[in-house]
Amino acid sequence: MKKFIPYDYFPNKSDQEMQASVDELYKLMLKRRTVRDYDSRTIPEESILKAIQIAGLAPNGANKQPWHFVLISNPEIKKEIRIAAEKEEADFYLHKPNKTWLKDLEPLGTNEEKPFLEEAPYLIAIFAENHELDEEEKKKKNYYVSESVGIATGMLITALHIMGLSTLTHTPSPMGFMRTILKRPQNEKPYILLVVGHPKEGAMVPNITKKSISEICTTL
Ligand code: IYR
To answer: Which of 114, 155, 166, 214 is least enclosed, having the fewest CB within 10 Å?
Structure first.
């Protein structure tokens, strides 16, 4: 196998075409919101699998591709996940509350109830592989794992949004139950539970603003 091959994507857009592309994409991305109300309408599995393939194209440490995605549509498994997540969330919101954190969450209107875990047609459990096992079953550490899986997750969210779907990045803490319920090996650490589906007609989202370009970026 050749060690290097020619790169083959040279769109050569003019400055105007480039601006038009980014303007169009910005307009579309402005519509991305974290949605908590889902329509139960089914979605073809192959479309979601293709979006996961896009996530798998993400840049990552030493091309180890340290991620695993579990695509869940089975209602019984979704129910099991909801029960386990709501148990952790009850601790977070009710039994062991962190006042500062809960105050920061107030504008989002979240609570310990997570009906979307059953209502949405798909959950994608994303796992980070902190190490792999070599031929002699010896642990081999992966590199920049959370950066890599974070980038892949961002690409997945973007792909699903462009497809017209909504998502919710759900991070019940701790998430150990995901490994147990989904029977994943020890080297996989639960990273995020992504809820995916069509938004429910009449869905509401928090009225929050984003920082301006001058707040998030310095030009030198
Ligand atoms: N995991 C909890 C709490 C939560 C935490 C953050 I940071 C958020 O941005 C939103 C929610 C929950 O899912 O409700």
So the answer is: 214
